[in-house]
């Protein structure tokens, strides 16, 4: 599963699920539009195990509500 959120005409946040070495993962990564008009990932991002997703969502909700 993959979702993309536009940050600017040349930058987007990609949120996706994947599997690596038997672990279900969730990744958030910034992509940029190259001179060749290709979307490429940057080093800016974070990956965590899917079982941590509830903790991450809880933390984001707490930040959202202040």
3D architecture notes:
The chain has about 70 residues and is α+β, with helices and mostly antiparallel strands. The chain has one domain: Roll (Transcriptional Co-activator pc4, Chain A), CATH 2.30.31. The protein is built from one helix and four strands. It has one helix spanning about 55-65, and strands spanning about 1-10, 10-20, 25-35, 40-50. It has a four-stranded antiparallel β-sheet with strand order 1-2-3-4, with no helix packed on it. A hairpin with a 2-residue loop joins strand 2 and strand 3 (about 25-35). The longest helix is centred in the C-terminal third of the chain and has 13 residues, at about 55-65.
Detail the topology: elements first, then pairings.
Elements: E1 2-8, E2 11-20, E3 23-33, E4 39-49, H1 53-65
Antiparallel strand pairs: 1-2, 2-3, 3-4
